[in-house]
Design a protein that fits this description.
CATH superfamily of the largest domain: Glycogen Phosphorylase B
Helix content: 40-55%
Radius of gyration: 22 Å
Strand content: 15-25%
Strand order of the largest sheet: 3-4-2-1-5-6-7-8
Number of strands: 14
Shape: globular
Largest sheet: 8 strands, mixed
Number of domains: 2
Length: about 400
């Protein structure tokens, strides 16, 4: 009998969860039976299947935006529903492993009855909850709310047999919070090489030098700074253009700033959610990717997936120097912008890259070392082996 795995995630699947998709498909490829318990949106079927993964969707409260207490109410509601559904499914399916993804950290409670009935449990930390709220709410590290969040984090980790982190700096931060280092495995959000292949050609033959950014259009990710930098670049080198794909809390600002400052020729904004599989050909029309993070306690620890996607495509990258990015990428791999972040610094970096094509080619070539060191295929095999060792069952198929 093939080993069975249930994954629980407070998100819509498969459309909004690349990390869980990758983990699930890795196990399916190795012969595991994988189910996913997730949110249900609109008229989506309650039971579905996608690429060999059975999906069970729960009708729960709509995902809350902005309000802390609405967030908490939605989290608690989904956790309650997931606990009932996971227990029912486990009695029927007898899972070898239940893997729970944060946020929230306490969603691991949904796996507790199955653990008591013999299933192994894994808590997959997607984000650092205390640092996220310190960044978004401005709470001090020693504030009562942050101390409470760290207590919940430690208690949640204690209910899991093993833990997952998305990078080494991310794991180190969790260990510094008091979580046991020996329980961790680092599973990175590497770009799928079947989707993000090297571009057949970089840029367009029209004399423009295009910077590209895709994903969340958010203030905390520095999108306001890079749009302001384009006003400087219009004066210094009007052939430099910024192309944006995405949506977020800074999207209205971007549109209004472009309109007010007549930057329509310098900034092209394709607003909205863009399917991941459709993005690479569009990104290849650019000359460089940009990752303009605003350094703070949260952004210092995240390793942006878009940076690795640009590297996989062969685009040189301009990025804010943060602890996590610097851990994996050296000065000969990325053109770093030093904190504190300002539009002037981004403008100078863009000018330098546009004026020195040899530098752009060298950075793109050297950045490939990251993908050689952190191979998608090797991580896939290591993750499957880690799961097999935890449940004491060899994978049915060799990868």
């Amino acid at each position: 009998m093939a080993p069975r795995v249930l994954m629980i995630v407070y998100e819509y699947y498969p459309y909004a969860e690349n990390r869980v998709q990758n983990e699930a498909h890795n196990l399916v490829d190795a012969g595991f039976e994988v189910d996913v318990l997730c949110l249900r949106k609109g008229d989506e079927p309650a039971v579905d299947e996608y690429r060999g993964v059975r999906i069970y969707r729960l009708t729960a409260r709509e995902k809350a935006r902005g309000n802390l207490w609405k967030y908490m109410g939605a989290y608690l509601d989904f956790t309650r529903r997931a606990l009932v559904a996971a227990t029912r499914l486990h009695r029927k399916r007898r899972y070898h492993l239940i893997q729970v993804s944060t946020l929230p950290d306490f969603l691991i409670l949904a796996a507790l009855p199955a653990r008591l009935m013999g299933a192994k449990t894994v808590l997959d930390f997607h984000d650092l909850t205390p640092e996220m709220f310190m960044s978004r709410k401005g709470w001090a590290e020693n504030s009562p709310m942050i101390r409470l969040l760290k207590l919940v984090e430690r208690g949640s980790a204690a209910l899991a047999h093993r833990l997952l982190a998305v990078s080494e700096p991310h794991r180190d931060a969790l260990v510094a919070h008091g979580l046991p280092a020996h329980k961790f495995f680092v599973y990175m959000n590497l770009p799928d090489p079947e989707v993000f292949r090297p571009c057949p050609r970089i840029g367009q033959n029209d004399g423009r030098f295009r910077l590209v950014y895709h994903g969340s259009i958010m203030y905390r990710l520095g999108l306001d700074q890079i749009v302001r930098a384009m006003e400087i670049l219009r004066r210094e080198n009007p052939r430099i253009q910024l192309v944006l794909y995405g949506e977020g809390d800074a999207a209205d600002f971007v549109q209004e700033f472009v309109r007010q400052h007549h930057l329509e020729d310098q900034v092209v904004f394709h607003r909205g959610i863009h399917p991941m599989a459709e993005l690479p050909p569009k990104l290849c029309q650019a000359n460089a990717g940009i990752v303009p993070l605003k350094p703070d306690v949260f952004n210092e620890i995240i390793l942006p997936v878009k940076l690795m996607e640009y590297v996989a495509l062969g685009l040189p990258v301009i990025a804010t120097r943060t602890r996590a990015i610097q851990h994996y990428f050296k000065d000969d791999m990325v053109l770093f912008v030093e904190p504190p972040v300002t539009p002037e610094k981004f403008a100078r970096a863009a000018l330098r890259l546009a004026q020195t094509p040899d530098l752009a080619q060298t950075l793109a070539r050297n950045a490939r070392r990251f993908l050689e060191t952190h191979s998608w295929d090797r991580q896939k095999r290591e993750y499957v082996a880690w799961v097999a060792d935890l449940i004491g069952h060899p994978p049915p198929r060799t990868l």
